[in-house]
Amino acid sequence: MLKLYNTLTRKKENFKPLKDHEVGIYSCGPTVYWYQHIGNMRGYLCWDILKRVLKFNGFKIKHVINVTDVGHLTSDADEGEDKMENAAKREGKTAKEISEYYFNIFLDDLKKVNFLMPDVWPKATGHIQEQIDLIRVLEKKGYTYKTSDGIYFDTSKFKDYKKLARLRVEKLKAGKRIEIGQKKNKTDFALWKFSETPGLRQQEWQSPWGLGYPGWHIECSAMSSKYLGEQFDIHTGGQEHIPVHHTNEIAQSEAVFGKKPWVKYWLHNAWLLFGGEKMSKSQGDMYTISVLEGIGYSAMDFRYLCLNSHYRKPLNFTMKNLDKAKETYKRIKNIIYGIKDDEKTNQKYLKDFEKAINNDLNTPNAVKVLWKMLRDQKAEGKFRTIKKMDEVLGLRLFERDDVSIPRDIRKLIDEREKARKEKNWKIADALRDRVRDLGFFIDDTDDGPRVRKV
Question: What band does 45 get if pLDDT is binned at 50, 70 and 90?
Answer without folding.
Answer: very high
